[in-house]
Amino acid sequence: MPRPIQADIDRLALTHNLARVSSVVRAHDPTAQFWAVVKANAYGHGIEVACESFAAADGLALLDLSEANRARSAGWSKPILLLEGPFSVSDVHVAQQLGLTLVIHQLGQIEMLRAGLIGRPIAVYLKLDTGMNRLGLQADQYQRGFEQLSLLQQVGIVSAISHMTHFACADSFDGIDEQTSRFVEVVQGLPGDWCLSNSAASLRHAPAIAALGKRFERRLWYRPGICLYGCSPFDDATAADLALRPAMTLTCELISVRSVSSGDGIGYGHAFRATSPMKIGVVACGYADGYPRHAPTGTPVAVGDQMTRVLGRVSMDMVMVDLTGIDSAHVGQRVVMWGQGGPSADLVAQSAATISYELLSGLTNRVPRVIC
Ligand SMILES: *Cc1c(COP(=O)(O)O)cnc(C)c1O
Questions:
Q1: Of 84, 125, 240, 287, which residue is the least packed, with the fewest Cβ within 10 Å?
Q2: pTM for the complete prediction?
Q3: Low-confidence ranges of the chain (pLDDT < 70)
Q4: Is 199's C-beta closer than 6 angstroms to any atom of ligand 1?
Q5: What are the strands, taking DSSP E only, across the chain?
Q6: What is the rounded CA–CA span in Å between residue 136 and residue 186?
Q7: Is 141 strand, coil or helix?
Q8: pLDDT of res. 265
């Protein structure tokens, strides 16, 4: 019998979440286009199920050629955006074979295009660093980058040239103003579509972004990720507030139920000590499955249909939970670590001082994904 742990992946929730963010954005920008971000194995959910569930998206965005290859093998025929662009000339060849769209975030990548491309022209997204200070050309390099790409366009190496940037603080209400004005300043004189918004910007700043597109008569592409998987990009709004549905439910079973006495320590380091006699359960889920080791005593978890808490330190393959007041608890009982019928991944992440992105993308390969 397999170890009792699995991640249920809800196709309908994925499809619902894409429809949800689309409707928020399209209320302001009816011609909005969407890259569904499926990097990191679709945030742990699986590229193949993402291809199927996000069929309504205009493209997929990711950053591994192997994942792009999986998407093509799964039948995805629409565009695929390679978010970090090529790392070598040979990547350009593979990208061309797979028909990818390349982000160009540094001038060296234009050299790779020049050296690598023959035949079918490739679409590019030139990326401007507007203040994230991560990837992207600096403002004073941008014009040069654009001119070099335009020359490659004239000789048939490059097809469409679009413009993109990435926001550092789109989760706050005034978090995009400075970066959008820098973007507009540099890019407004150059032809091409614009691509600005992650989940936070799509859900919180759609009116402002749409107004920008209208004013400069640009088609806008959006790049939502985390919201597609049913998690919130905000501290001050839950996924339920945003009408998103959890797409991954991590379920396990109790593999042992035991009683402890007042004063007994539980698990490694006796990090939790009982202050009265209590019943505890052992769950077949640990940090080698991707459950966060930093989840402390008190982290929410559901046993059957009751919410309870983690006790003590998370081990590699197991974690203990409080069964106080759950009289019916028994070996084999279903436990939900996060997702439908349990705490949200956002809540568990918050308790472990991290973000849902890390939990979803950190689910390890030994946890079977069951598509439902
Ligand atoms: C991951 C990523 C996104 C999606 O971000 P979310 O916060 O998950 O919506 C968008 N753009 C780029 C460049 C990314 O790397």
A1: 240
A2: 0.97
A3: none
A4: yes
A5: 5-9, 33-37, 59-62, 80-82, 101-104, 122-127, 158-164, 194-197, 220-222, 248-260, 265-266, 272-273, 278-283, 300-303, 306-311, 319-322, 334-338, 369-371
A6: 13
A7: helix
A8: 98
247 by Cβ neighbours in 10 Å (0-12 / 13-18 / 19+) ranks as buried
Would you state the pLDDT for residue 195?
98
The DSSP element (H or E) to which 2 belongs, if any, is none
For 151, list phi and psi in degrees, rounded to 5.
-65, -40
DSSP β-ladder status, 278-283 and 319-322: antiparallel
Q: Please tell me if the CB atom of residue 165 comes closer than 6 angstroms to any atom of ligand 1.
A: no
Q: Are 296 and 268 in contact (CB under 8 A)?
A: no
Q: What is the DSSP string of 13-76?
A: HHHHHHHHHHHHHHTT-TT-EEEEE-HHHHHTT-HHHHHHHTTTSSEEEES-HHHHHHHHHTT-
- Find out whether the beta carbon of 224 lies less than 6 Å from any atom of ligand 1: yes
Which helix or strand (DSSP H or E) is residue 193 part of? none
The one catalytic residue in 214, 268, 279, 287 is: 268
pLDDT of residue 16: 98
Hey, is 337 helix, strand or coil?
A: strand
